[in-house]
Amino acid sequence: MTALVYMLQPDQVCIAMDTLVVSSEDKMPLCFQRKFLPLQKQKLLIAGTGLSNFVNGWFNYVSSITSFEGIDDLNTITPSVLQAISLAAGGLGEFTTTIYHFGYSPEEAKYLGYAYRSTSDFQSERLQYALGFKPQVQIRQCDNIEFPDFLIEIVMEQQRQDRQMPIEKRVGIGGEIEFVELKNQTMRIETVHQFKSYESDRQNIENRLNT
To answer: What is the percentage of the chain residues whose pLDDT exceeds 90?
Structure first.
């Protein structure tokens, strides 16, 4: 699982995600990794929440094909391919997974977002222009939004609330926060925050590798 926060607007998209991957069995740290796939040529960013093996499988599939030009083309095949991948894996069991596409649409001359949720059989869902985040938390009202600070604040609150849950119910949020800005048909990526839990998570990862 992961933390995802995005602000989708016609002229830009801002996204923040953490980098900690935890075991689905014991909820303990497994590794740190980037949880999105940037495709600069197609002006597209793909992200995922839920089962990391399934999300990474979609990343690998999209990276292997070259026959699509951008978010519009990819949207036409995504539901059927995700359904086929899920079927081949025997389903996702109790785990829910959502794939997100954010990118510039040449057809509409603006940025678009789509979600493909396992709970909806990966049907294409066009996202509204708005702030979105997962897991859900209470956030303060803000009239003067600055990026990436606003998104960092939400992800930190997501981690705070997640760590108050019993361990078996936690999403598992930590590592670092990576920020992506899609604007003017370009993409900028940077690491903008390191959680205080980074070192303890890193030690748990090393201990797991050494056992």
So the answer is: 82
